[in-house]
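Quick one: structure for this chain?
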Amino acid sequence: MTKINDIFGKDLTVLNVGLASMAKSVSDQGVKVIDLDWQPPKAGIPRLRTTKSGVSMDAANQEVVSRIKGGKAVLVGMGIARAVIPGMHDHMILHAGPPIEWGRMCGPTRGAVMGALIYEGLAQDEEEAVKLVESGTIEFSPCHHHHAVGPMAGVVSPSMPVFILENKTFGNRAYCTQNEGLGKVLRYGGMGPEVYARLKWMETDLYPTLDRALQTLPNGIDIKSLIAQAMHMGDECHNRNRAATSLFLRAIGPALARTNKDNEVLAKVIEFIDRNDHFFLNLSMPAGKAMLEAAEGVEGSTIVTVMARNGTDFGIRLASMPERWFTAPAGKVQGLYF
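Got it. Here's what it folds into:
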């Protein structure tokens, strides 16, 4: 048998199966290349196009796409998490990504959990929060198990106000907290008096002001339509939401004025939304959730309806298997760091 070291001492001939550009990159190094003219068969292979039970994957995927395209996500109201999110209770914390226990959570997620417990009044400080978690009193559950979503750490605690998005085509609902803005915030694992003060203001001032306005809009606010408009204005509705946030403020503005009870509170609410370009993110995410979740439960579909991470694990779920997570270690983000 030829030893691996012997191979590197001989002239090599490379067999390229695939893109011609790959063969060129090798030949540019002075290596002989045999370029095999081959491509996957255009006609479908039966075992890859039907399930074991004979369900057509193509037909299933067409049904899923039809449901997604036919969805209409509308902001219909707001509420307190414990009162409106299915399965939520006073000792539950929802989080981003697939299921995870406290011992495997990354730093920012742990910070967000501790901060949420302090905000809730269940702990006085970080040390008490850790003891409470380690006592087993707190139940952790993924947002996606409760028709909810959350940016970054994704933490939702019982007292937090949430937006309620309804898919008017199929009747299902999705939920998300209000966006805190950038900087030292809970969703990044930020803790401290200023974080808790902002969360309390969002609970006592921002939420009631928006909720009163929404209650006067019988048709709600068509978030899918705002997303479509914002994309034509340069947003992608995840990392850039400037146009979408502005469109939302225009849509709810008259109702805010008509239901106003305190000019100073209203001014602060408008300023908060205006200065937080990411405010709309917490509307576009549940809008996507509401439209994708309606497409779940279609046997044979290979379309992904959930992609989520929590800093430790990355997971996906398929339209055909909405209760099952497929997970892998979350990779380190390659990007610009401050």
